[in-house]
């Protein structure tokens, strides 16, 4: 399966919940699991995966994974919100001013809320998607075979291991297959989603649920 077909085929139903007061009050080095549905969320603790529940804290640099049908929403103070799709495994960033989260597999949606001068990124074996300021972005892939990065608001920049870069403005995506260079430019997301009949239902800030890629009328 190539990266373009991967973009068309992922359907992750979930509802993004508001940030709870406990997340806002958390210490800078800690995040909070503000929502968990459809299965389990685990973290690696002393070389063993241990289940954690909604409302628990997660620390910078921790490795997390979701079950086959689980969706987890994690709030990191001064960074933003992460949504882990089913069957995903990540390692949270370690540097608050340059918060790079590694995604080993699965799908990860990020809404940044960064202080001035800070940046955040999602790193995969194939490419890195970086953002400054405020943006909604999503990265997903098939391990070391393919990766896609898209955004519905703001702008992100995707960098390949050889240093090639491409900007991805709102409403567009870039797909990269292993061993291939980064495309010259990003493409519009909606036509691909409309043709496939699926949409990222868990990105409800901008897409109509089950709307075949249709954006909400008040989407900015």
Draw up the topology in text.
Blueprint: H1 3-9, H2 21-24, E1 30-37, E2 41-45, E3 48-52, E4 57-59, E5 63-66, E6 71-76, E7 80-84, E8 89-91, E9 98-112, E10 119-123, E11 128-132, E12 136-141, E13 146-153, E14 155-159, E15 165-169, E16 172-177, E17 187-188, H3 190-196
Parallel strand pairs: 9-10
Antiparallel strand pairs: 1-4, 1-6, 2-3, 2-5, 5-8, 6-7, 7-9, 8-9, 9-12, 10-11, 11-14, 12-13, 13-16, 14-15, 16-17
Helix pairs in contact: 1-3
Would you give an account of this structure?
The relative contact order is 0.15. Helix content is 8%, strand content 44%. The longest helix has 7 residues, at 3-9. It has one domain (3-196): Jelly Rolls, CATH 2.60.120.1440. The protein is built from 3 helices and 17 strands. Residues 5-28 and 197-202 have low confidence and may be disordered. The chain has a 17-stranded mixed sheet that branches. The two termini are 32 Å apart. It is mainly beta. Helix 1 (3-9) packs across helix 3 (190-196).
CATH architecture: Sandwich
As a percent range, the share of strand residues is 35-45%
Helix tally?
3
Poorly predicted regions are: 5-28, 197-202
**What is the β-strand count?**
17
Task: Please identify the structural class as seen in this structure.
Answer: mainly beta
Number of domains: 1
Radius of gyration: 16 Å
Determine and state the CATH class.
Mainly Beta
N-to-C terminal Cα separation, in Å? 32 Å
The chain-level mean pLDDT equals: 77
Helical content stands at: under 10%
